[in-house]
Q: What sequence folds into this?
């Protein structure tokens, strides 16, 4: 493989890694605050893609406005999911809320099959994304180029939000000590809602770009990316946002490079994530950037 | 200012508080003393809405706040420094202070308040960018008090602020409490350091296994032989 080819794969890996990172953030943020693995997160991602699909095909609104609205709308669905499926169980044993998450996931998948139909649909790709950009002698598709860019902007925005705003500080405080946070006058429910909104919003943005890159839509399409991004979050150290981003990139790049360098192992592409997970957890049980997991009292 | 009537708290089958009555006038320092497990923390936590009240009523400024959620109680101007400091360890000193002002919307006011706190606790200013978890125990206590002052509370409740501090720091903390009081705050102080607490208190309550057994002006209780025997370590 020549240099060109390597750069090409690198670009693809970064692009896939960006998508994984965007989705993994949702897992890690929710876990950080509720100590809950939101099993329905991959299905929220799927909903985001379908909502965009219908928005583009069945309205005359410009595609980019549909993209924005669909992402916000998906964010609100995530917020609603927490209100309906998790909030009433917050005082229950942890296992109850986990089961509720699994139930919510099945529900959304089957909702998708009933409402959207089981047959695959083709994502309507706006023409701009079919263009090819030349970058240092390598030609890559527009979307491969756009994905990391959008991801970078969102990550910068998220970092600003988490580190500089009062709500972001409240989020960090809440992830460590609910009671003291409420003694500051923090509205815990509001912060949790915002967390779910952000996670689902990012999953939707990732989903839309996913749809452009892999334009085949199915109601179960959230399962595998969801699982992998959960793994990415665990690899990075669940609860840690930087870790989730790191995990996403390691997974995306690793997967593409595995296929590129060892084409014979292409069939093991999906297994790669699990193997990596096992290896990393054996070396560092808390994940790359994770701290000791403290039980919430 | 703050009136607690017939407060009961149960944990499962345990009746931790059985009919507590406390009355605090504006600008008073009132202290609540008692042995370990007497129910001092439970009293404060029940007032703040952190634990459920089985019975009883809490009035603040003539208003019934018994069933308000914690965040709304804070908004009304009642703030508590929890037992064991509980600073947000991963956040910087300054971020801790900013969170203390979470319910305040005025940005310049918050800045001015942070400056006030730094004037009061110069140590915190030197460490403003340090993570709170890296502070010493005494510094963390200063931060916990400073954080509570960020909203200019009308009623400040403190749960054993001198706990685990060296004698010199204990003296500092009590000096600070007096200073906060002289600035017009109403204070409810829970202490195991009964002597120091009674010395600065206008009024005091003695709690024993969930019931009030004695009350009176601070200096009177200091002279009380039962108090001296049980809480001041002085023989009859
Ligand atoms: N969350 C809880 N669950 C069960 N029992 C509790 C709980 N919190 C307190 N108790 C019990 O209630 C009683 C009063 O506890 P509380 O913490 O109010 O005492 P305290 O006077 O603050 O003691 P200390 O001086 O040790 O802080 C104790 O017997 C304690 O074991
Ligand atoms: Mg206590």
A:
């Amino acid at each position: 493989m020549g240099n060109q080819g390597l750069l090409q794969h690198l670009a693809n890996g970064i692009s896939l890694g960006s998508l994984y990172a965007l989705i993994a953030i949702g897992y890690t943020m929710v876990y950080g605050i509720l100590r809950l693995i939101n099993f329905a997160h991959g299905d929220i991602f799927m909903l985001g893609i379908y909502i965009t699909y219908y928005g583009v095909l069945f309205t005359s609104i410009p595609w980019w406005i549909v993209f924005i609205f669909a992402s916000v709308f998906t964010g609100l669905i995530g917020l609603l999911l927490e209100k309906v499926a998790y909030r009433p169980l917050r005082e229950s044993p942890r296992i109850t809320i986990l089961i509720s998450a699994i139930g919510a996931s099945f529900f959304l998948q089957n909702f998708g099959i009933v409402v959207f139909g089981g047959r695959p649909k083709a994502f309507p790709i706006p023409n701009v994304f079919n263009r090819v950009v030349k970058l240092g002698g390598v030609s890559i598709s527009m979307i491969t180029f756009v994905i990391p860019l959008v991801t970078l902007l969102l990550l910068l925005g998220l970092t600003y939000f988490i580190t500089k705003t009062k709500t972001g500080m409240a989020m960090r405080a809440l992830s460590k000590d609910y009671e003291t946070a409420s003694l500051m006058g923090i509205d815990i429910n509001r912060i949790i809602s915002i967390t779910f909104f952000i996670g689902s919003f990012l999953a939707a943005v990732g989903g839309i770009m996913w749809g452009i890159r892999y334009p085949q839509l199915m109601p179960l399409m959230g399962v595998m990316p969801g699982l992998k991004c959960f793994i990415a979050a665990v690899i990075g150290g669940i609860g840690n946002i930087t870790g989730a981003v790191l995990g996403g990139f390691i997974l995306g790049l690793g997967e593409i490079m595995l296929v590129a360098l060892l084409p014979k192992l292409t069939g093991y592409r999906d297994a790669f994530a699990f193997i990596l997970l096992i290896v990393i957890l054996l070396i560092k049980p808390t994940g790359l950037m994770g701290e000791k997991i403290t039980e919430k009292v | 200012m703050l009136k607690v009537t017939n407060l009961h708290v149960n944990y499962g089958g345990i009746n931790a508080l059985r009919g507590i009555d406390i009355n605090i006038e504006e600008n008073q320092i009132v202290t609540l003393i008692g042995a370990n497990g007497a129910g001092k923390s439970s009293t404060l936590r029940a007032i703040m809405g952190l634990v459920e009240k089985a019975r009883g009523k809490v009035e603040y400024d003539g208003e019934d706040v018994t069933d308000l959620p914690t965040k709304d109680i804070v908004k009304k101007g009642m703030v508590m420094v929890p037992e064991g400091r509980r600073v947000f360890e991963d956040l910087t000193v300054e971020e801790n202070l900013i969170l203390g002002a979470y319910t305040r919307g005025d940005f310049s006011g918050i800045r001015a308040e942070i400056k006030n706190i730094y004037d009061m606790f110069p140590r915190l200013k030197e460490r403003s960018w340090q993570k709170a978890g890296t502070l010493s125990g005494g510094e963390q206590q200063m931060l916990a008090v400073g954080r509570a002052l960020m909203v200019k509370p009308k009623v400040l409740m403190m749960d054993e602020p001198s706990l685990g501090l060296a004698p010199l720091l204990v003296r500092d903390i009590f000096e600070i409490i007096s200073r906060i009081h002289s600035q017009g705050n109403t204070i409810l102080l829970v202490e195991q350091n009964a002597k120091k607490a009674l010395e600065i208190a206008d009024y005091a309550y003695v709690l024993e296994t969930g019931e009030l057994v004695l009350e009176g002006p601070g200096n009177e209780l200091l002279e009380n032989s039962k108090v001296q025997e049980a809480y001041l370590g002085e023989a009859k």
